[in-house]
UniProtKB/TrEMBL annotation, chains A, B, C, D, E, F:
GO terms for molecular function: kinase activity. Keywords: Kinase, Transferase. It comes from Ventrimonas faecis. Coiled coil: none annotated. It comes from the Bacteria. Residues 2-307 form the Carbohydrate kinase PfkB domain. The keyword Transferase applies. This is Sugar kinase. InterPro entries: Carb_kinase_PfkB-like (IPR052700), PfkB_dom (IPR011611), Ribokinase-like (IPR029056). Belongs to the carbohydrate kinase PfkB family. Gene3D superfamilies: 3.40.1190.20. The keyword Transferase applies.
């Protein structure tokens, strides 16, 4: 089974430690973005994953390309050209101080790419699963159009489509997001919806917006999940991460998965995170891994949420954790020094 | 409204991470000191703040000067000359290991300055509020004398005097502190007293000295605060930060403010701090900001304590947090990633 | 005498040491750009210098703003707003490996600013000297238009205009540059032309393009300089830096200055540079400083070229060298440890 | 009283922060190993401690040698020669992610040393206490033989032998460990046994292996400790650290000490550790210090466990904490900034 | 054309800047080794290059594997297993202080691999060129045997064999080297011999051992090169780098290439190197690239030596320089800032 | 033979790379000072060297103490107590930019020590050679007095006194220096005089002050050296380093040694230094080493100057170079990679 994920990878510039941008005289550089993170998760878990984007032919584009290759992602379908790589600045919060992300992604090679640069027949050749998140169509109208092209091709060629709704308030309005995502959902076979995604991208009320009480609202979430399946019958399964968040680091996390009319729910993990980004992508990557390897629904959701919270303990965007490590945490919760 | 703060800024040499000084082969360099921190808080909050000190005419003095200028403090009244910039070494603790400060400030340009180098008529021209903390008169007899000069000028020219009692056990004895501070308090319009300050600088018993139970002793604090007003009728308001401290990072913080015979008390913030210095200065800075902008007493104390605990999440001495950020934390307690 | 410089300041992201971008997992961050560098030179030399640009209202824009303030530049005329701060990536070469600059400046706040956002009457109030380089009109058509607005205002209000022709091949073609710069030169009172600037911006042949033999072609340069004055009678003086460059670090540098029909030429400095950027801006800054302080033409050119080669020994974009230090190098060439 | 500890010191290569080895492009280098850590603890506490090992005559061996000397350990008995210094790679965990140690110690100078290179008569001359841990005999058969040589010499010359059983699953099997350690225990005067050491090295069941509930099983531990004394009558005292571990950082720690048929138990310390290695060695070092200085059994165990948890707040392997600091923590639990 | 290189990649631990190992408290970590460096050169130049070695299945082995993949090397033939990755410590010299390399490679996964783990039929399937250096057979007897296996298979299946004689005095004696390399040379189609390689590995006197005068002895070198062809008629071409070295950084470099009885010689490059390792491997990589792309003999040697001296300006082991960059240096020697 | 050196060790705070102090947000921390550097040189060369100073009992004093111990210096005679450790800030120059040292040493523990804290009978017990430099008596009147005490004791007890005149213009005037040093010279057995030392400390004209032409004035130097012996008959030998300095890094160095009426002169070393401090101390250390080991006068001066220029290639203050390494450089000048 070969998976293709489609989206944007950016240069991530993080200040050292918890410095504010106005204090920093250097940035840690890494590369990440929702769909590339999913591809790296899959490659790290041992799957055959390719990533599709467009990268500028300059050293910054090369560095992003190499970083994907370094972690075993198939980069052979990536388009090269265009002006620049998108950037995001990252200030890591602490306790009551929220982590802050500043996008500088306008005018990126992918955003400026024409929809017809994507020859889906070639790009999807040999692909079994196609993944994208709601970030991708939000990038630009032409990328939105490209996503439609991909989904239609998948739909007519039996390629499974998995979508993480992944709403980004800094990228588009709820109105705009809904007008696009509702349409795209017609082609989606499995959908991941977290937190505000229900409302923002599909207009379904599942969550009152208070991140401190996501898990406490599990019943509303269940209703929201059922509503998705009701509205989008092509969508055969829905997964979701629920959270109670207390500080920038402390929270409770659980996964819920609706399949064949049954809800499978993971235990609640109480964690203090090291760097709270990429957990949703890690969840998606683990979920696809489990689907590819035929995990039972209960194992699937347990594995996915464990992978997701393990990501909270890994720096940068990629969830560089092996299947063996995830399974060990699931089993023992062992945290003593391994020596 | 223009504010002048008067005191010493030092070179702060912090070991990387939590290294002991004997382990470190480098120091992070920044600049700070109570009154300069207050000035930077004010400038960051958008106020017109000047800082007064004496800095050596050498590159280390220039660097301190530039750092103030960088964050928008008016440096035009700073005296230049003298031998050296005071230094403090900083070892960041962890849990049961206390954070440790080693002063190397003897012989600094300010400590060696003559009282008559300070031409208060010129230095206080255009100033509406004058701020100093108990650290300033503790620096040297000549600086103590200078403070008296300033306060007398303020008193006779209608400039509001705000003082953070700020006792430092490594700088002077309680006996010496009381002999000076009791005198200075005659000229103070608003006073900030925390923890041991009551006893050490004014001989008022408000706290048993156990940092683990400051908030638990709120009633004694209230009595201490009332006692201040009783003894120093010129002092029209008193503010205080109360804390229960559990470890080097974990604690509960609240603010209390006496004005016109009424106590205004903030909610209790339970926090895990990133770097527990400068919170008192952040409190003072926010308090002055609120006074300048006519905040209601309740908003004033809520805003000040929120600013203070936000500082616990910022590295180095300066509280580089905007008014908008403080208000957002006050309102929502929102800690999810902002993106 | 107050100087205003107008142009773009960018975030500069340099790889550590000599790493290639594809090797680096971090960047040193500083801020610079031709005209901001000139303003910092002037402030460091003790002059009253303001910088004009447009900066985004976000932490990256704030950091650029603060960095200027830190070094004493008057930032009160800077416009705030727009989308992003321009960036340039910097890879430091070595010997036969050239230093490489990768611009990522499209869509910057300044580039997108409308010409009529610049109210020249207000912005030039109290200004005696206006400086810009050829980079500024190359940024965008609206900035080009703004430059015309400024020059016309200066011309009619007796403000001296100084221009460093400063051709950037990655920003515009020679054809486009000439069509603009020839027009702007009508208003220029003093012009700095280096290397390829003669040909690229004014169509005057002074240099065969071989950086290894600039000084060797001094006679052609002299002709080129005379030609400038012939073509642009408003331009009362011309200065130029001539170089023989052997490697990325090694070269010979000299200055030449035409004033009142006489050529003043500095000695040749043979240097091994630490970081070969910003030397032209340091030359311009020192030249303006000398003009403001009435240096004799010979001292002016000697001082300017010494400041310029001193910049080669300073990291980042700004020439943080005092007048005293430059004069000491001019006099003694003393390089022993100062202790 | 002079103490000699015998074992291996290694180069420790830790990734920065919490990076995975596959992410890191650098390592923090320090030096450590159980018995060297004990020697440094003793020297830091003011005792006369020597360390015995074999180090290669190359710069890496020199660096380990110097690091011991730096912290006051007597290095005059160390053998020089052999091929390489053992290495261990260290990845610091976080919350549910365990800290991970990767040994690269095969073929080290000590492992390859012949037993007869150790002239115990000379090496133990002037020594009052000999300390080793279970790691030492696990290094290689020849080192195991050397340990036997040392213990026999000590036994017949009245030198006290102290052993921390210290089982390492990556170094030898329980079967092999028991066959050696049971024999060595005949010569041991005081024994430290923690967690799985009872079972793994002596075949005594004291702990079900679940690190989350060590303290909860205190009664079984007490039985295990009594069993040690029953089986090894030469062993006049037994000390043990009991722990409930919740995450990679959070846990409860207590000490227990059996002497003259009486159990002395410390309070339970609830801590969030900074770097959870070397705490057992810190415990052993403090215990020996207390024995040397005639602490009462209750003070001994309280001091030792406090030293041990203080180590959790210190980076690298060595417990660089003075007796005064330990006593202050024991007394007050004071964690406010010391200034 | 597909190239396979065979040898060992090691973890390289370099002290920061020029620190001595005894001063350093950290190491920069990268990965390199002669044959892996050649593979990366080829991949960077756009060729299809695979690397063969054996890597341990642990995070350090993974990191080496990933680093190769990052730069585009085909890692699909690499064996996994064994105990450890070889290490080399690196201290960068300066002027009269030589750069120093300390090997810690004994017991590596490759050294311990059995010769029959290498199934040459599978490993060489689809390969056109096989490259190894004299380092590979020096690793261990079993690796030596594996090399013989590979060469015999190549010889009988028309795969071109290229060998860089690459003598390492710390790995084997001249006597041992000659006994092996003379035998292996029977199968070599193109040979690279530098400096002492002639004497040490083939017993041919071409150089008096004085690195300060290699180029000065060009005539002896020419005789040595002819002698190689005379003794090993299978060897159809010989290439060599000649050097005059003045300091750890300063030297003159030239290439010489014997093909069809004619000597092709490059210009002499006078360079000041940044980090003088890997230049020989860069030469070999460029040479193979030129052969694959049918460069004329003169262009071949000019290109190879230029690539080699460019490597002197790149940090770490890999020559991350594109064909375009090498050609630009060959043509212009241009070293001005590219912007 | 046991050597005692007496003087001050300071905390050295160097900006990273070549940053100006006003640019740096961190300092590299190391420890050094003329006489401590000599002690470390001797210990590194294998000699029995002790260092005498007074260090504060705080972590910064401990770190200096440990650093000496780390490199094998006998620290048992060091006094502890006093207020602070002296500091010096260090900005590394480049080419025409001089390296700059900013002292912050006033009020140090040593400077404030009373002369009678030094019990010379105990401190000099077992000592064969006593070394100090002209920096020591310049520290304070009480230290000057202590030096007199030491020299008188040495003189009457047959302990050899070696003095490096070592004039520091920032510490005392030539007038003051001469009044002290001329007196002290009565007791000196071997004297080292460099550059301006002749004039500044002894009033002997040997050098015109132009560092670019020291070697060129060798004849005047020879006269100066002879003059020393003439004026101070107790001084049986004089050594001197002569230099032609071209830039902050480039220079020519040679040694000259007068013994028994004969001048021994080393070859001239042309070097490009990495960090030009401590070379004089390295010279003194090597000279004492050679005297202790009975080197012939010619070998002595050759060895000493080679050690001195090797120091130019080592970072920080200490010359961490072995006798073997110095001898290898003396013999071969070999600078190729050692592997």
């Amino acid at each position: 089974m070969k998976i293709l994920t489609f989206g944007e990878i950016m240069l991530r510039l993080k200040t050292p430690e918890h410095l504010r941008i106005v204090q920093a005289d250097g940035f840690e550089a890494s590369y990440g973005g929702a769909e590339s993170n999913v591809a790296v998760s899959l490659a790290t878990l041992g799957d055959d994953a390719a990533f599709l984007t467009k990268l500028p032919k300059n050293p910054v584009g090369d560095a992003a390309f190499n970083e994907l290759r370094r972690y075993g992602v198939d980069t052979s379908r990536i388009l090269r050209g265009g002006a620049r790589l998108g950037i995001y600045f990252f200030e890591k919060g602490s306790d009551i101080r929220p982590t802050s992300v500043l996008y500088d992604r306008a005018g990126s090679a992918l955003a400026e790419a024409d929809a017809d640069e994507f020859n889906w027949e070639a790009l999807l050749s040999g692909i079994d699963i196609f993944f994208f998140s709601g970030v991708t169509p939000a990038i630009s109208p032409s990328v939105e159009q490209a996503v439609f092209g991909a989904l239609k091709y998948c739909h007519s060629h039996g390629i499974t489509v998995i979508c993480d709704l992944n709403y980004r308030t800094k990228m588009w309005s709820q109105e705009k997001a809904q007008s696009v995502m509702k349409e795209l959902m017609q082609y989606v076979d499995l959908c991941i919806a977290n937190d505000e995604d229900f409302e923002a991208t599909l207009g379904i009320h599942a969550f009152d917006g208070d991140m401190a009480h996501g898990i406490d609202q599990i019943e509303t979430y269940r209703q929201g999940i059922l509503k998705i399946q009701e509205l989008y019958p092509n969508c055969k399964a829905v997964a979701s991460v629920l959270r109670n968040l207390k500080t920038a680091e402390d929270g409770e996390w659980m996964g819920i998965y609706l399949k064949d009319g049954h809800f499978y729910e993971s235990p609640i993990h109480t964690v203090h995170s090291l760097e709270a980004v990429g957990a949703g992508d890690a969840f998606a990557g683990a979920l696809i891994h489990g689907l590819v390897h035929g995990f039972s629904p209960q194992k699937l959701i347990d594995f996915s949420i464990t992978a997701s919270v393990m990501k909270l303990m890994i720096q940068h965007d990629f969830n560089l954790v092996s299947e063996e490590e995830i399974l060990r945490i699931m089993k023992t919760g062992e945290t003593n020094v391994i020596r």
